[in-house]
Every structure is written in C-alpha cells, then in structure tokens.
Amino acid sequence: MRLLFAVTALFVIMPAAAAFAAVPPLLPMEDFFRNPSNAAFSISPDGSMLAFARPWQHRMNVYIREISTGNEKRITSATERDIAGFFWKGSGKIIFAQDSGGDENFHVYITDINGSEAKDLTPFENVKAGVIDDLEDDPFHMLLSMNRRNPEVFDVYRCNIETGELELIGENPGNITGWLTDHDGKLRGALQTDGVNSSFLYRTDESQNFRTLITTNFKETFSPVMFAYDNNMMYVVSNLSRDKEAVYTFDPEENKIIDLVFAHDEVDAGGILHSKKRKVITGVTYTTDKRHYHFFDADREDLQKEIDAFFPELEAAVVDMDDDEQRVIIRTYSDRTRGAYYLFDRRVNSISKLADLSTWLKAEQMASMTPVKYMSRDGLTINGYLTLPVGVEAKNLPLVVIPHGGPSARDVWGFDSEAQFLANRGIAVLQVNYRGSTGYGKKFWLSGFKQWGRKMQDDITDGVQWAVNEGIADRKRLAIYGGSYGGYAALAGAAFTPYLYCCAVSYVGPSNIFTMLESIPPYWKPFIEMEYEMIGDPFKDKELLEEVSPVFHADNIRIPLFIAQGANDPRVNKAESDQIVEAVEKAGKDVVYMVKDNEGHGFHNEENRFDFYRTMEEFFRKHLGSR
To answer: pTM of the predicted model, to two decimals?
Structure first.
C-alpha cells in the first residue's frame, strides 16, 4: 500500500464563470459514442470529387460526392467492421483497410468510384499489411508492407493494383522496423534495431546495398521524416545532444546534420507541413497546451490566416488539398464540439460547409477542457486537462481520473467524448500526462522507465490529491478509469492505493506484466529488449514486476471493479483480464466482467461501445453517485 502525499499546486487556469451556466439536460449516452454522421473528408487529386466516411448498417463505409453536382454514392459495403482508413489512388480509385474482429491483421483493398466490388490486394490469412508509399505519380502500382514471409518482420512489395501481382523488392533481413521512400517512390532508407540500438540505413539508389549511417540507443531519437524535394537532402527529427526533439536538415551522403530548422524550448517538435506542388516544406506543428503552427512559407501562413478569419472561435486545420492546392478541405473543432468539414476554394475565396460530424451534440451544452499543471511529490511538473460539469459549482464533485494509454503517448486539448459524457453526468474529469508521456522531452520520457505502478502511478495519485486539495473533488467520490496502459493504471490504483478510490474501470488493460510481455504480437518481437528496459526484464527485474503487477496483489483490492476486454486483442491478450477477474473473485470482491467476442484492443463496433458505456454509466451511478 502506498502513502498518499500532500501535493502542492504549481498553477492552474480555472475556467471562468462555469458555475453560472445553465445545467444542461441529461443527454442520451448513445449521443456521445455513436458513429459520426460524416467523417474523414478527402479530395481527389483533380479536385472534382470528395471521399468521406458515413454509417451504413451501423458501420462506417466510404462514400463519394461529385463537387459540381452534389451527387453521392456509397462505394463500400462493410457490415462486420468499420472501414479503418482510406485514401485516393488517382482520381478514380479508393484504397481502404479493414481487419477481422479486431485482430489488427489489416488487409489492403481497392475499389473504383463506380462502386464495383472491392478487390483484396493482400488476401492472406494471419498477415498484417500496410501501405508504405501510394506512388501517387504511378497510376498502376503501390508499395505495400507485409509480414507474409515471416510474421515477425515486414517486407516491401510492389503491388500492381490492376492485376494484384506482388513483387518482393525489399526483403527484411530480420531487423528492419521501418522503410523510407524518396519522392520518386524509390526505396532508399530503412530503420534497423538490434533490440536496444536503432540505426538508419541509406542508399543512393536501389541498385546499391544499404549502408549504416547513424546508430543511437533507442532512448535517443534520430527519425528521418522525409526526403527534401531534391531527393538528396532529408528532414529528420532528433534529440541528439538536446532534450526536446527538433527538426533538422540532414545530408545522407555526407552523413551529417546540416541546419536546425525548428525547435521549441518547452515541447518536442511535431509534424512537418509541405507542399508537393511548390516542392517546399511550409511549416511545423507542436503541442503545448494546444496545437500550434510555425510557418516557413508565406503562402501557407496566409492560407492559415484566411482560414482562422473564417472561424475565429474555433480551431481550424487543413486536412487535404487537391494537386493544384486551390481546393482545400478544412476541419474545425474545439473542446466543446467535434466540429465540421468545409471546402475552401482559394480561387474565388469562398467557403462552404460539407458536413457536421455530430449535429445532435450542442456546443453550449458541452463542458470546457482546461489545461492545468501541478507539482508531483518529488517536484516534477505534471501537465494535464480538467473538464468540469456545466452549471454546477466546481466544489466537492465526484471525479474520475483517466490516465491515457501508451504509455508513450500524451493527452491533447480538444473534444473528448468520454470527458463530455462524464461531465454531463455531473462528474469532473482529470486527464494526466504523467512522467513517461511523450511530447515533453527526453528527460521526462526517460523518467518513466521501470516506473509502472511506481512514480508513474504516483503522478496520477498526486493529480487526484491536487484536485481534492483544491476543493474541486470530493475525497469520498473518486474513481479511476483507463484503456490499455490506462487500464493497467486503473488496476494499479485499485491494488496499490486501496483507500483512495471508490471504484475502478479497466478497459483492455494488462494485469500481469510477465504474461503481457510473453504474449505480444510476433511483429513486436524486435522491440522486446526495449520493452524490458522501459518496463522491466522478466528475469533480471522479477521482484520489481511482481511488485507492480496488480494480479499478484488482488487481496489488496477492496473496491468494485468493472473490466472490459476484446477476445481477439493482439496487444493485451484476453488472459490478462481473465487472470485479474479470477483473482479478485477468489478474494471475494465485486467485479463486473464484459468480453466482446468480435473485438480486439478496444471496442470499435457501435453496439459494443454502447454496451460498454451503458455499463460504465450504471457502474459509476451506483458506486460514485454520479448524476
């Protein structure tokens, strides 16, 4: 059992006048978790057509719309699983991906805009496929990755999209974890690992063998992002000799970093924006409390200013352009709305709405998500987000803390269905970027190594204690809920701070670190030594892993649990949930256990999401006293 230390607030920006708004009606649970009415708009290269996702028979399918006439047509017919993702191949075909029952063995399909029957380009059992390069200037081919030859590694194939013929062009020797092409679609870069060291391999052209340029320990970053448009220089993201990841130019022939392109003092650099038409990089993104831009290109900066002028009270992001970069797809959003998609025609400076994502959710009834900071018990600054119910005083509220998954990830500002759902039920929600989260630099990430159930968990505990000390949360009505690593943190909260929470929900969360590490998918095996360094070695750190695996401490759990699991989960095997349920029941404690036979790492089918959140709502109403 861990002691609960007092936590001192570093500072917090509280939402103004939240307590004076009207209390919104109790909205149906389904409204927060149903499929969007429309989503994922993209424009054809010639600018004449739109592709987007829309529900059909309760599954997200691909539709197309002719811009000039508005005529629409559904071109996929998925009924078992949502279409996982799609993109244009030329202006007449759509490539999409789909798995089976959540097993994450995605197949790559092609269909034309006339709605002819889709063709599976990777029709192999127990094989995971993906797209490395769509070869947008080659109308007949794409480059695909598959672990068909060896389930642990991915080779590169040139696929003829007309015939389905596959040509092996990059055979993985067993240690390649990623591939990189230039702007001509030539395979010229690869990432290699020996388990703990990562190397960047390069060749001038495809007639040569790869040669090793840079080798780093995995604790440091050297990530080639893209070739410059001359296909000679490269852009890389790296934190070598620094704490925060920055963008640099890199000369692979000279094997030398050339210039610093962008760095931020507080956070890692994010994505690189670029223009294919003008063959330049145009800017970078980075995330502090919210996402921000830094532009290098006047035209792209002017475009953003024009867009922001249309939507002064919303965030607005460019999500796609046609080849002429004159017709632009925009997505708006905020913390209180999922937003909408718009088409901006730069030629005539006109903007038109394409679709709202969720018309049934009204922004004025949603809660604000406020960035907060607090100090951990050992003096580390922890960033997070606080969502408070609308129309009630922010005092002595029931609170649910939601640690994110990963754990090498981070929460960001924006619309969060779970936070809004709980806030509508009168619950305050705290989301915590505990140590080990990404985005805050190398030192912060490394501080989470071998800290599962220890200092990482303390950061979560300290956030809850901060909310109690601030008077926001009622000490007697605290709960913890999370998915994946967040599900582990929920179990750890129940086992290691048994008198802090009144209930816990674990969603596809591991309970036994030994069996979790034994049952990872085969294509994660090249990373297993890294996992041992980040989490713990089952042999060298046996006592540590026993100490922080909740399944061995089920006797400490005194609060009700709700555990949900997908039967086909390739990341967190169903045995992880079976073990903790059996141990808790053996100890005579209450547990609600939900298993979905047609799901994997998370519930993607709409009816399964409804079952999960309906059960969660009843669970929190019973044990937390929610609205």
So the answer is: 0.94
